[in-house]
Backbone:
């Protein structure tokens, strides 16, 4: 209770500034004879959204209702004491949930449930293939689930720490007689469930468009999910979820950069390879710039194509893929 809090002594003055802390003992301890009620300090406004802090003070309990993030205040219950949170919310905080990562299970509905609940892999949510209205929650959003593994995006790594993982029930791909991968389509009802779920998450946690990603984006050398049939463009167009390039910017870059024939001529030139690697890394993929068409580079191009140019995902950097990559770098620069 605010009115029952009093200061009786002020012997130690603590000055705190950023990471520096100084403890200064005042020469003459001030003794207060009349109780002084603590008055809530006026909270500063958050001026801008830098991706780290929020336009809404998420600590402000009057605003921290279901419209922002329900369940985000978890408090200690120390024996014999009361934790007061109403009057001391800090502006310097953000959500731990900064990414949404999408997967497919390569298992049917039943096996997806048993595997993700009984083995050392998990996800926060599981979206079945059924035309019902249910989405399964397997892990509390405030806890880590084990879905991302070794993973990187931009300056971040180990994305299990900072993400909400969504597993989509889907059988992945089979390989046909010509060696081509044939991916399994997602039912319409399932896509709608995934879109509604992701939309809810990005709104509640203010997750940046650049942080709604495929497992293949954050682990391109290991993972292909959720694959080229997952409709990222549709999620962007219909639900304003995630990243997509502007067509005019893509055309502009396409006119400026090399033609496909010119790319073919210099494809094995280490300078060209380095430039492609550098641009993929600049966009966000974890990739070494070494001028060599190694497996990691091809897999990263493939992951990029799965997400942004799914009509052809052969792992070869053609003119259209390069133009899309440059349009995305321009639209979503790293801060
Ligand atoms: Zn996955």
Residues:
């Amino acid at each position: 209770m605010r009115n029952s809090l009093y200061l009786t002594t002020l012997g130690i003055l603590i000055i705190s500034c950023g990471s520096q802390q100084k403890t200064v003992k005042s020469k003459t301890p001030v003794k207060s004879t009349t109780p002084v009620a603590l008055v809530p300090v006026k909270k500063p406004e958050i001026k801008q959204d830098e991706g780290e802090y929020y336009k809404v003070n998420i600590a402000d309990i009057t605003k921290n209702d279901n419209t922002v993030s329900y369940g985000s205040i978890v408090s200690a219950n120390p024996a014999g004491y009361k934790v007061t949170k109403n009057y001391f919310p800090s502006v310097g905080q953000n959500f731990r949930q900064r990414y949404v990562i999408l997967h497919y299970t390569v298992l049917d509905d039943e096996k997806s449930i048993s595997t993700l609940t009984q083995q050392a892999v998990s996800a926060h949510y599981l979206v079945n293939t059924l035309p019902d209205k249910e989405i399964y929650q397997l892990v509390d959003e405030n806890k880590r689930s084990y879905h991302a593994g070794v993973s990187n995006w931009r300056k971040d790594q180990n994305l299990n720490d900072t993400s909400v993982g969504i597993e989509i029930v889907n059988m992945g791909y089979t390989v046909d007689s010509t060696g081509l991968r044939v991916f399994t389509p997602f039912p319409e009802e399932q896509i709608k469930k995934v879109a509604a779920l992701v939309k809810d998450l990005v709104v509640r946690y203010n997750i940046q468009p650049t942080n709604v990603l495929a497992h293949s984006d954050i682990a391109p050398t290991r993972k292909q999910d959720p694959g080229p049939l997952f409709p990222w463009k549709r999620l962007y167009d219909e639900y304003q979820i995630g990243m997509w390039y502007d067509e005019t910017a893509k055309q502009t870059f396409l006119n400026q950069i090399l033609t496909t024939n010119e790319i073919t001529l210099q494809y094995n030139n280490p300078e060209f390879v380095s430039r492609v690697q550098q641009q993929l890394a600049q966009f966000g993929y974890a990739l070494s710039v070494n001028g060599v068409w190694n497996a990691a580079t091809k897999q990263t191009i493939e992951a990029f194509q799965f997400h942004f140019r799914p009509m052809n995902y052969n792992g070869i950097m053609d003119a259209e893929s390069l133009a899309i990559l440059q349009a995305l770098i321009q639209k979503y620069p790293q801060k």
